[in-house]
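Protocol step 4 of 6: record predicted structures for both targets in the notebook before any analysis. Target 1:
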Amino acid sequence: MTATADFIDIPLPRFADFVVAGRDVSTIPVVKRAETLVEAGLLPQNVVDAVSDRLAATGEEILGPDCMATADPSTAGAATQAELVDRLSEAMASFVSRHSLDVLIVIDVASTQPSVADLPEFNDPDLLLELIGQNHRVVLPASGLTALAAVRAGAAYCCFTPSPTLGIPALRSLADDAGILYAGQDAKTGQTLLRTVLAPMFVARAMSVQSWAGTNLLGGGDGATLADPVAV
């Protein structure tokens, strides 16, 4: 899309201008994980060889389990969800400072998390902030903690999956008050993308869809995450 004529006169940043960081529960080095993709036949070895130095540099910016967004703060050695949010937002601010970045963009690519109930605190920002400060209390899902940390850090935010995140009204209100840019909550790369494209076509052709079914193999930990109400 950005290579089309509509974007010719827009001063978009070059790929080399981006500095990548992240957080992951896995402690396997990024280069090693790329090599497993080679072993699986998904990438050619020469591609990994060409970017191995950059992958290694990115790996140095990957935060481990002690700086994870997890619904149960005790699993990350914290007393409150607010403490986890502070850790994440401080890590984001440190990343920006170390690399003298102009803009920080947070993209949540964690496994899709279950939807949440319509609770009073999810509609009241002040009540929400009060409750996440209470010891050992599970209030927000993990994706909500990441979103709140991004808001605190003044970062643009996008959720790659249909996890709750800024779909929670109180969080969206805080994001609006902070004036951050945000998008989401579904990048639509698979079945959702196809259905989004096909559905209008069926309507335009006056075709009535009697049923619509799909299969999700729930790989990569998605199934386990959706089955766990307090998922990481």
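Target 2:
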Amino acid sequence: MMRDIDINILKSSEIGKLILPMVWHYLPTDEFKLKNTLWEKYASVFPNIWIASAFKGATEMTQLITPTRYHLSNQQAWLKMLNLFGKMFNKVLGIAITGWQRFDHYTVLCELFPVALPTLAVCLLTIINGDFNENVHKTASNLLGFEKLLEIDTFPRPQPVGPPPLFPGGNIHNSCLQLGNCITEYHILMHHPSIEGAFSSYQIMHNRVNTLHIDQFLPRARILLMNIEAINVQLEGELNKIFYPTTVEEFLAVNINPFLEKLRKLVKDADLQIIFHSAPEEMQLNSN
């Protein structure tokens, strides 16, 4: 990283005659941390530069849904920075709007490209226009075939999900939004007091369960399981149209299968406890 190298070392090396630096930064406006002194240093060494922002990835290793507002803010921060310091260089040669697929070669997939395509459209049009506004929002939405304006604030979830946009991969985009809703609902469900406090593995193992508590969560668990199973079928079919089989396998294994397995076990355990506690008392005693 050249950011921390002394300016005299950079000058004496004459590296400015050999390379074109790309200055990258992926944080939103309120977290943008490139110091003024950095631009002064680079301008004294490099006549021309590239810069790099991000339209996906660069937030969470396991990110499923692209946080559009976050990446839009990153573009806006860069535009502001260029207005302040761009004239210090002979030329800013361009901006690379990067889109990570993994944080490194050993981490899981983050947002798939069809999920992030609306964010890319918003970021590109913001850079071209010089800022984000209502016209940029409408143009991006129309170009990608959204029935209404595309979501800028994709979090928190759950949120209503409209019809699939018309761009290739639009069904994947929508299914991932629905999956994001379900995952949020799953975490809410698993923190339900009747699960955390009345349906622990210890209580299940010893058949010490009050079925009134099961009534508090089982209907929601069944619906959630049904919804994720439906998304699983739809996503597997749509993903196989675009991605390699290994990519499809990994995506489902990381983002869907763990939730299906835990929900199926939860529903099965609940059903077995209902059967056990509805049996005659002498049968319950024999089971214990």
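Step 5 preliminary note on target 2. Residues 211-242 form the longest helix (32 residues). The longest strand covers residues 48-56.
Proceed to step 6 after PI sign-off.
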